Amino acid sequence: MSRLAASRLTSPAATPMRVARVLIACLMGVSLLSACAERPEPVTSATPTATEDAPGAVAPLTGESAALEILGRPSLAAKIGNDVEARPQRGLERADLVFEELVEGGLTRYVAVWQSQIPEELGPLRSIRPMDPDIISPFGGIVAYSGGQQIFVDQMENTPVKNFIHGQPNADPFMYRSKDKPAPHNVILRAEKLIDDQKGLAAPPTQFEHAETAEGASALQGGTPVATIHATFSASRQQSWAWDATQGVFLRSQQGKPDLDTDGKTRSATNVIVLRVNIDNQYPGVPKTVLIGSGTGHVSTGGQVIPVTWSKTEATAPITLTTEAGEPILLAPGNAWVELVPLISGAEVRFE
Fold this sequence. Notes:
This protein is α+β, with helices and mostly antiparallel strands. The chain contains seven helices and 23 strands. 14% of the residues lie in helices and 33% in strands. It is globular, with a radius of gyration of 19 Å.
C-alpha cells in the first residue's frame, strides 16, 4: 500500500466508506499513469468473477453501491456529437460522467464516460479534439471515437488509454453506421460487446469525491438554493439545468427546449459541475479547453449550489474540487455533468 493510501486510511477525515474505497483500489492494483514520450501500454488487471455486492464498496465514478463485477471492469469514454442532427444520442442517459466542451463554430460536443452502467449501444461517435486527452487520461480504460486530425489522434493514442477508432481494424467488430441518421452523425458503438472483449483492463480510479448519502453532499451542507443553472457557451449553445424537487434531479435544456433521450425523457443529473476554463487557440480554428491549471466554478446538488475552486496538475491527474476554504467537495452519489464553460466573450454562467 502506498504512503498516500495509508495516510488516507489514518486521517481524521477517513470514513468507513472512504477506507473501503482505498482498500479496494489498492487490492485491484489501480494507479494513475504518468504521460511519457513513448506510447504507454493500457493497464491490465484481473476482473473479479463474483457478482454479489461488496460490503461498503461503491462504484468509482458515481459513489453508488456496486457489485464486484462493476468494481472490476474498465471505464469506457466516448466522444459524442451534440449537433442537432446527432440528437437524441444513444446511451448518454446511462453515463456516469458527461463533460461538455466548446468546439468549432461555438458548438459543443461531449466526452461521456460509462462504468457503472454499460448500454448495449451508444453514439453517435465523433472526432477527437486537443483537450480530450487531458479529460480522458485519468480514467485509463477505453476510448472510442470516429477519427480526427492526425495530430489530435496521435495525442490521444499517446495516453494510458486503449484507443478504438472507427475504420481501424481493432474497432471494426464494435462499430457500424446506422441508417437512422445521416453521416457523419451515425457511427454507433456496440458498447457492451466492447467491454466484454476488454475485461482485462483495470477499473478507473475515483475521480470526484462523493458523500455517503445525498444529504452529506457539500452543496447541501454549505450551499445556497438554486432553481436554474444557465451555462452559455455561445449564442448557439445556451444550456440550462432546472431543479426538479419531485424527481430529486436537475433537468437539462438546450436553447430553451428540453434535452430528450431516445425514450423521450428529459436528460437529468444528480450533480451539475460548472467550471470556468481558459481557451488555447494554438490550433487554428480549433479551440482547446485548458485543463492543466486551476480556476473557479460551482457545484450544484439537491437544489443548492456552492462555489468551488478546481485544479488539475497533469494530464493523468483527476480534476480536484475544493471549497473556498480549501476543504474537499463531496458530490451526492449519482451521475454528474461537467460544463466546461469558456472564459470568452459571449459565454457566461448564471444562477437563479
